[in-house]
Write a structure and sequence with these properties.
Rossmann fold, alpha/beta, 2 domains, binds adenosine-5'-triphosphate, binds magnesium ion, 26% strand, 4-stranded antiparallel β-sheet
Length: 321
């Protein structure tokens, strides 16, 4: 193994990362509308998200809420319909086709849920890792050394010569992470990477992603349905109907026994919009109006009393226009 090769030393486009203090991934009022014949599906509706360089976050949400749509846009596999989206200094809305190809090749790694989709079945594990490096024009000696180093870091160095079908599902996903990191991208995206794995293997993959994030400084965004994901990531972002509704942030500090506490926050976007949790939203559904009171730094929201003018029983105050 050539210890002179270090993640980020050759291709990682550090210059592509945003200025100091700026978030690395930024989505502002992002829309994605799929059009098929005369049918339109609004998959993302004004989504706001910021991710700092070196952060590890999970995106969770119901089926059809827009998670894969968001990840595919960040991966440069699909284009947004409107809004802003940037990774480092790259603007993914106005990027050229050529720029997008370059972005996919150098700046972002992707892991799919389906293990079979991540690896070419007729290449050994090592050759699967070397292929993206060859496409990026890396010399053979470099490719071998870096493939070996990545596989060691993933704990599957001994499997380098095996074919994908000779690996377990968990080993295949670890090799897939290796392929995604082959060109040392600063951003790693994974869409339900543990969806086909049992709990033990899922934990191993999450541990691995955490370790790679820590050791290589790679920014990681994972879409997942795994219930215990909060303990492996810095932040869990909840997506509902194509928008970020809340975030769960876990903190390990101040807990004597080393356990973590998790706090869930509603997201208020730049325009002041927020999404109420479903169970509360239901009580406003009938009228579509809310009464807002501000007292001692607290906001109270309640449905107006059930009369014809949208007024409630508290002295006939009118909601400010
Ligand atoms: N290529 C497409 N053409 C038309 N509609 C699409 C397309 N891809 C996704 N959609 C629709 O966009 C919405 C969001 O889909 P998306 O795949 O992003 O959901 P998801 O959150 O990843 O769901 P899941 O958890 O099931 O993977 C859904 O209504 C889906 O049917
Ligand atoms: Mg999906």
């Amino acid at each position: 193994m050539d210890s002179s090769i270090r993640y980020g030393s050759v291709l990682a486009p550090v210059s592509e990362q945003g200025g100091a203090g700026d978030p690395f991934v930024v989505c502002r009022d992002l829309f994605k509308i799929y059009k098929r014949a005369d049918l339109e599906v609004v998959a993302l509706r004004g989504l706001d998200l910021s991710v700092d360089a070196g952060e590890l976050i999970a995106i969770v949400g119901a089926s059809g809420s827009g998670k894969s749509t968001l990840l595919n846009i960040l991966a440069g596999l699909d284009r947004p319909s409107a809004g802003q989206v940037s990774v480092g200094r790259r603007d993914l809305l106005n990027i050229s086709e050529q720029g997008l190809v370059q972005y996919r090749r150098q700046d972002v790694g992707f892991v799919w849920q389906a293990t079979a989709r991540n690896l070419l079945p007729y290449l050994s594990v090592a050759d699967n890792l070397e292929l993206p490096m060859a496409l990026a024009g890396r010399a053979a000696g470099y490719r071998r050394a870096w493939a070996g180093e990545v596989l060691e870091a993933l704990g599957i160095g001994r499997l380098a010569g095996r074919m994908p079908h000779q690996l377990s599902g968990g080993e295949q996903q670890r090799a897939a992470i290796g392929v995604a990191l082959a060109n040392q991208p600063p951003l790693l995206l994974a869409d339900e990477p543990t969806g086909e794995l049992d709990t033990a293997n899922a934990v191993m993959v999450f541990d691995m992603l955490r370790g790679l994030n820590r050791d290589f400084g790679v920014t990681v965004i994972i879409v997942t349905h795994y219930p215990g994901v909060a303990q492996f990531v810095d932040r869990v972002v909840h997506i509902r109907d194509g928008r970020i509704s809340s975030e769960t942030i876990s903190t390990a500090s101040y807990q004597r026994d080393g356990s973590r506490t998790e706090d869930e926050f509603l997201v208020v976007d730049e325009a002041g919009r927020l999404q109420l949790p479903q169970e509360y939203a239901d009580s406003f559904r009938q009228r579509g109006l809310a009464r807002l009171d501000w007292e001692d730094g607290r906001i109270t929201l309640r449905p107006p009393a059930n009369d014809s003018r949208g007024d409630d029983s508290r002295g006939g105050q009118r909601t400010p226009e």
